[in-house]
């Protein structure tokens, strides 16, 4: 079953939660580059501060361009704290819930074909968008010392993935938690496993240009017969992850692109998205699908900062800051609702409608309850561990190098 989350991980450095949401105050308007270099969040909604100067290992290849002298126009898209990234993340993850609310009932013949086809319109854009947004903040993560980087990913991605794999496997999954394929594929949590792989690759390949890594992953999945499931999804969607890491430095420039170009891109993307309703090759896993996704992402990223602020946008931003909660909690909730309705043998339209509305309501209730259930989404002592790692890195950086005494015998072998 295809899953669209990013989730988004608040995860970096373990200073907050990914993948965890903390109420934030308003900050002065800033550009996209300032956002990526300063306060920023991953798909989880975490916040942290990026040093003004990145370490040498990442400065040349991955530092986003800083163009504070080139403000973005068109309805002040450079709004406080760059809410548009949370907005997009929230919209995408809510659409994931709607997608699964429509697809899960099909397992018992209670689905609605027209609703499934409508969901397919957005399939080329949901997952690539979430991966792209996560990748945009990768340079900030890699600017940290390796122990802090790895701990942040463990606390905010590996931990919730493991917790919910156990919970879902024990209480919901029909075959139980002891089926090997369940752990290998990740079932509905495959997106978190794919993110874990991508972040691991990023640590190993950070010396390479991210655009090259993205192209290599896309070429592999298109030109080589990759096993379906997690390997195929990781390579294909991972290409958008590394593309986002490369493109973040050019985001301000893209946001100033002429509107006529964006309209043309939107028309082409919409036409092929319509054609892709009945053709999987236009939705995922091919060069054509990747091209359609890129066109759609370009339009979405250009448009998002220009959307008017209001209650609706604030709602999606709120959901986006806790996208990890929506992602991990929604599927078990939908499955339980579906099983109850299947036993009641309600009509398909009611089955899908109730599953969608009630599933969304209960999932959002889980978001509201997050302050009292943080251990479900982030390692309980992540802040303490992150603080110790940060202090250790600061001590190591400030400690003067030991100067050997002339004539002294090295104490090798002691």
Helix count equals: 18
* Element-level helix/strand string: HHHHHHHHHHHHHHHHHH
Tell me the helix content: 55-70%
Radius of gyration: 22 Å
User: What is the structural class?
Assistant: mainly alpha
Q: Please describe the biggest sheet, giving its number of strands, its sense, and whether it closes into a barrel.
A: none
Our estimate of the beta-strand percent is under 5%
Oligomer designation:
single chain
Low-pLDDT parts are: 1-81, 408-414
Describe the structure.
The protein has helices spanning 32-37, 56-62, 83-103, 113-120, 123-136, 138-142, 146-171, 180-185, 190-204, 210-223, 230-247, 251-254, 259-275, 287-303, 311-321, 323-344, 348-368, 382-398. Helices cover 60% and strands 0% of the residues. The protein has one domain. It is mainly α. The longest helix has 26 residues, at 146-171.
Question: Could you list some keywords that capture this structure?
Answer:
18 helices, 414 residues, mainly alpha, single chain, disordered C terminus, 60% helix
Mind sketching the topology for me?
Elements: H1 32-37, H2 56-62, H3 83-103, H4 113-120, H5 123-136, H6 138-142, H7 146-171, H8 180-185, H9 190-204, H10 210-223, H11 230-247, H12 251-254, H13 259-275, H14 287-303, H15 311-321, H16 323-344, H17 348-368, H18 382-398
Give a short overview.
With 414 residues, the chain is an all-alpha fold. Helices cover 60% and strands 0% of the residues.
